[in-house]
Design brief:
The mean pLDDT is 94. It is elongated, with a radius of gyration of 21 Å. It folds into 2 domains: 87 residues, 2-Layer Sandwich (TATA-Binding Protein), CATH 3.30.310; 76 residues, TATA-Binding Protein, CATH 3.30.310.10. It is of the alpha+beta class and 189 residues long. Helix content is 28%, strand content 31%.
Length: 189
Amino acid sequence: MSKNSSKPEIKIQNIVVSTSLEHDIPLIKLAETLPNTEYNPEQFPGLVMRIKDPKTSALIFSSGKVVCTGAKSLTKVKESLQKIIKNLAKIKIRIKVKPKINVQNMVASGDIKMDLNLNFLALKLPNTEYEPEQFPGLVFKLQGTRATFLLFSNGKIVCTGTRSEVALKESVDKLVIVLKKIKKDAKHK
Protein backbone atom coordinates (compact mmCIF):
# COMPACT_ATOMS: atom_id res chain seq x y z
CA MET A 1 0.00 0.00 0.00
CA SER A 2 1.46 3.39 -0.95
CA LYS A 3 1.86 6.12 1.63
CA ASN A 4 -0.57 8.43 -0.21
CA SER A 5 -3.55 6.06 -0.21
CA SER A 6 -3.84 5.71 3.58
CA LYS A 7 -6.18 7.80 5.68
CA PRO A 8 -4.69 10.34 8.08
CA GLU A 9 -4.23 9.13 11.66
CA ILE A 10 -4.70 11.67 14.43
CA LYS A 11 -4.67 11.25 18.19
CA ILE A 12 -5.54 13.78 20.89
CA GLN A 13 -2.57 14.42 23.19
CA ASN A 14 -3.92 17.16 25.46
CA ILE A 15 -7.23 18.89 26.14
CA VAL A 16 -7.29 22.21 28.00
CA VAL A 17 -10.61 23.03 29.65
CA SER A 18 -11.93 25.67 31.97
CA THR A 19 -14.85 25.45 34.36
CA SER A 20 -16.27 26.95 37.50
CA LEU A 21 -17.05 25.02 40.66
CA GLU A 22 -19.23 27.99 41.71
CA HIS A 23 -17.77 27.98 45.21
CA ASP A 24 -15.00 29.97 46.88
CA ILE A 25 -11.95 27.80 47.52
CA PRO A 26 -9.60 28.40 50.49
CA LEU A 27 -6.34 27.78 48.60
CA ILE A 28 -4.03 28.03 51.64
CA LYS A 29 -6.06 25.37 53.48
CA LEU A 30 -6.08 23.18 50.38
CA ALA A 31 -2.30 23.52 49.96
CA GLU A 32 -1.70 22.72 53.66
CA THR A 33 -3.96 19.65 53.53
CA LEU A 34 -3.09 17.96 50.25
CA PRO A 35 0.39 16.74 49.26
CA ASN A 36 -0.27 16.90 45.48
CA THR A 37 -0.53 20.71 45.41
CA GLU A 38 1.72 23.74 44.87
CA TYR A 39 0.68 27.21 45.93
CA ASN A 40 2.88 30.27 45.78
CA PRO A 41 0.55 33.32 45.78
CA GLU A 42 3.43 35.82 45.50
CA GLN A 43 4.24 34.36 42.08
CA PHE A 44 0.83 33.22 40.79
CA PRO A 45 -2.72 33.50 42.21
CA GLY A 46 -3.70 29.90 41.41
CA LEU A 47 -2.98 26.63 43.17
CA VAL A 48 -1.60 23.77 41.06
CA MET A 49 -3.08 20.35 41.80
CA ARG A 50 -1.49 17.31 40.16
CA ILE A 51 -3.64 14.26 39.62
CA LYS A 52 -1.97 10.88 39.07
CA ASP A 53 -4.80 9.04 37.32
CA PRO A 54 -5.74 10.35 34.86
CA LYS A 55 -2.40 12.18 34.63
CA THR A 56 -3.55 15.80 34.61
CA SER A 57 -2.86 19.11 36.29
CA ALA A 58 -5.36 21.71 37.39
CA LEU A 59 -5.02 25.37 38.21
CA ILE A 60 -7.52 26.18 40.92
CA PHE A 61 -8.36 29.78 41.80
CA SER A 62 -9.94 31.07 45.01
CA SER A 63 -13.02 32.09 42.98
CA GLY A 64 -13.69 28.42 42.17
CA LYS A 65 -12.51 28.76 38.57
CA VAL A 66 -10.48 25.78 37.37
CA VAL A 67 -8.28 25.19 34.32
CA CYS A 68 -7.49 21.52 33.74
CA THR A 69 -4.84 20.31 31.33
CA GLY A 70 -3.25 17.02 30.33
CA ALA A 71 -6.28 14.83 29.65
CA LYS A 72 -6.39 12.96 26.33
CA SER A 73 -10.20 12.65 26.20
CA LEU A 74 -13.28 14.40 27.56
CA THR A 75 -13.97 11.31 29.68
CA LYS A 76 -10.57 11.80 31.35
CA VAL A 77 -11.35 15.52 31.82
CA LYS A 78 -14.54 14.57 33.71
CA GLU A 79 -12.63 12.00 35.81
CA SER A 80 -10.07 14.69 36.72
CA LEU A 81 -12.76 17.16 37.76
CA GLN A 82 -14.38 14.47 39.94
CA LYS A 83 -11.02 13.88 41.65
CA ILE A 84 -10.68 17.63 42.28
CA ILE A 85 -14.16 17.69 43.82
CA LYS A 86 -13.25 14.66 46.00
CA ASN A 87 -10.07 16.43 47.13
CA LEU A 88 -12.09 19.53 48.03
CA ALA A 89 -14.42 17.36 50.12
CA LYS A 90 -11.36 16.49 52.27
CA ILE A 91 -11.34 20.12 53.45
CA LYS A 92 -15.15 20.17 53.87
CA ILE A 93 -15.89 22.00 50.62
CA ARG A 94 -19.01 20.51 49.03
CA ILE A 95 -19.37 21.24 45.33
CA LYS A 96 -23.06 21.05 44.44
CA VAL A 97 -22.86 21.90 40.73
CA LYS A 98 -21.97 19.60 37.88
CA PRO A 99 -19.08 21.60 36.38
CA LYS A 100 -19.79 22.88 32.86
CA ILE A 101 -16.76 21.99 30.74
CA ASN A 102 -15.51 24.64 28.30
CA VAL A 103 -12.86 23.26 25.97
CA GLN A 104 -10.27 25.97 25.33
CA ASN A 105 -7.85 23.99 23.17
CA MET A 106 -7.10 20.52 21.87
CA VAL A 107 -3.63 19.43 20.88
CA ALA A 108 -3.38 16.40 18.63
CA SER A 109 -0.62 14.70 16.71
CA GLY A 110 -0.64 12.29 13.86
CA ASP A 111 0.38 11.31 10.37
CA ILE A 112 -1.28 12.46 7.15
CA LYS A 113 0.61 9.79 5.17
CA MET A 114 2.15 12.22 2.70
CA ASP A 115 5.74 13.26 2.10
CA LEU A 116 5.87 17.05 2.30
CA ASN A 117 8.30 19.46 0.65
CA LEU A 118 8.28 22.14 3.35
CA ASN A 119 10.32 24.68 1.33
CA PHE A 120 7.77 24.41 -1.50
CA LEU A 121 4.80 24.62 0.89
CA ALA A 122 6.25 27.69 2.61
CA LEU A 123 6.18 29.43 -0.78
CA LYS A 124 2.73 28.18 -1.86
CA LEU A 125 0.69 28.32 1.35
CA PRO A 126 -0.53 31.55 2.95
CA ASN A 127 -0.11 32.05 6.71
CA THR A 128 3.06 30.01 7.16
CA GLU A 129 6.26 30.31 9.16
CA TYR A 130 9.22 28.15 8.26
CA GLU A 131 12.75 28.60 9.50
CA PRO A 132 14.43 25.20 9.08
CA GLU A 133 17.69 26.34 10.68
CA GLN A 134 15.73 27.02 13.89
CA PHE A 135 13.04 24.31 13.82
CA PRO A 136 12.36 21.46 11.36
CA GLY A 137 8.59 22.03 11.18
CA LEU A 138 6.48 24.43 9.15
CA VAL A 139 3.78 26.34 11.04
CA PHE A 140 0.58 26.72 9.02
CA LYS A 141 -2.57 28.55 10.14
CA LEU A 142 -5.47 26.97 8.25
CA GLN A 143 -7.81 29.71 7.01
CA GLY A 144 -11.47 29.48 8.02
CA THR A 145 -10.64 27.39 11.09
CA ARG A 146 -9.11 27.83 14.54
CA ALA A 147 -6.52 25.18 13.66
CA THR A 148 -2.80 25.80 13.49
CA PHE A 149 -0.64 22.96 12.21
CA LEU A 150 2.98 22.01 12.58
CA LEU A 151 3.92 20.09 9.44
CA PHE A 152 6.98 17.89 9.09
CA SER A 153 8.51 16.57 5.87
CA ASN A 154 7.68 12.93 6.75
CA GLY A 155 3.94 13.73 6.95
CA LYS A 156 3.79 13.89 10.74
CA ILE A 157 1.66 16.74 12.06
CA VAL A 158 0.66 18.49 15.27
CA CYS A 159 -2.63 20.38 15.38
CA THR A 160 -3.59 22.96 18.00
CA GLY A 161 -6.42 25.43 18.40
CA THR A 162 -9.53 23.32 17.81
CA ARG A 163 -12.12 22.92 20.57
CA SER A 164 -13.86 19.67 19.61
CA GLU A 165 -13.03 16.31 18.08
CA VAL A 166 -15.35 17.13 15.16
CA ALA A 167 -13.54 20.44 14.45
CA LEU A 168 -10.20 18.64 14.78
CA LYS A 169 -11.16 15.98 12.24
CA GLU A 170 -12.65 18.56 9.85
CA SER A 171 -9.48 20.67 10.08
CA VAL A 172 -7.22 17.69 9.33
CA ASP A 173 -9.44 16.69 6.38
CA LYS A 174 -9.33 20.28 5.08
CA LEU A 175 -5.53 20.35 5.48
CA VAL A 176 -5.17 17.17 3.42
CA ILE A 177 -7.39 18.63 0.67
CA VAL A 178 -5.30 21.83 0.58
CA LEU A 179 -2.01 19.89 0.45
CA LYS A 180 -3.24 17.49 -2.28
CA LYS A 181 -4.43 20.44 -4.38
CA ILE A 182 -1.01 22.13 -4.13
CA LYS A 183 0.72 18.86 -5.07
CA LYS A 184 -1.65 18.39 -8.04
CA ASP A 185 -1.21 21.99 -9.21
CA ALA A 186 2.59 21.63 -9.02
CA LYS A 187 2.49 18.54 -11.26
CA HIS A 188 0.42 20.34 -13.92
CA LYS A 189 2.83 23.26 -14.31
